[in-house]
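step: validate -> pass
step: tokenize input -> pass
step: predict -> running
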Amino acid sequence: MGAELPLVSAVIARLAHPEINLAAYGGVVFPLALLIESPIIMLLAASTALSRDWRSYLALRRFMMGAGLALTAFHALLVYTPLYYVVVRGLLGAPAEIVEPARLGLMIMIPWSWAIAYRRFNQGILIRFNHARAVSAGTLIRLSVLVTALTLGYWQGSLPGVVVGTGAVIAGILSEALYIGLRVQPVIRDQLQSAVARRSPLAPRAFARFYVPLALTSLLGLLIQPLGSAALSRMPHALESLAVWPVVGGLLFLLRSLGFAYQEVVVALLDEPQTLKSLRRFALILAAATTALLLLIAATPLATVWFEGLSGLSPALARLAQTGLWIGFLMPALSTLQNWYQGLIVHSRRTRGITESIVIALAVTVGLLWAGVTWGTFPGLYVGLAAFVSGNLIQVLWLWQRSRPVWQGAQL
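step: predict -> pass
step: emit ->
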């Protein structure tokens, strides 16, 4: 999945008006789509932890369907009413030239939230019942469809880059959701329906106590994305920063993604005896390896190959991106550690600490973004990356503190 954003950005950068379409996609479409879907992102963790028996499955499925439809309706309300201009022009302060292209992209993205909810819910079931390879197969299907759609859009040549990018993204996510939905049916029939729960099913109030902190965590965490776009739009070199934002973010996401799945791995495997030390050791190895790889790219001609050759940026934008890469070099390690600690906390079902961590991270990030807008000295890309790194560092430190009782208890 981490390859998606770099691929989309690389094609948009090679079509007409690349700066405008990159800024529209990375500065408006992608952040707002993520924010709208944020309440259901944690369905993967919830489904992995709770889909142990038929009753729990039915309760989670009802929640998934209702939440997915509600978020899809809100997405449509946003793009088809004047609310769009209130958000994009008023709150985000987006440059005038990207407002309408971004709206068209968001219209294409309307099925996004429901497809994500359906896919992540069923992926959790596959992981819980030891069919994680099916999740990887679904991702390969998504990537194949994405690449095919991007290639067709590039050859066609006349469509705006934001249309080609969002159309490819939606085609990919719908194909993956369809595959996962079909693949999970025999698992539900043959394994889940006959499974005996190790714990009693959660009552609605208990489920709310479990899931609401997770949903708030996603909502607050992804709120940083549009806040970052709003801040970049108000700092020096706004259009350039917004254009480079998805390209640098895509490379960082590609390396960070290696740690994203670790939360579900921890949740699934902590039930097994004698796994804590192995899980912790792997988290540290993964954090070190991804950081070393990012530094290798930043410090060598590989950065030029990536940003100019593969991503299609102009030399000036590529230099801006390469400097930004140095600012964000800690992000892959922080993502791995974050998901390690969150996995421990989710497994304990005491998820309040996760919400606390993101509130603190959001406060730090917003404070630094506000300082950057107030000073108005540095390019927005640099300030945005520094703010995100600082917020993530504080978040990881808080999660480490809140997870200590969990892993200390698991050692006893």
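step: describe -> The chain has two domains: 1-202, 203-412.
step: cleanup -> pass
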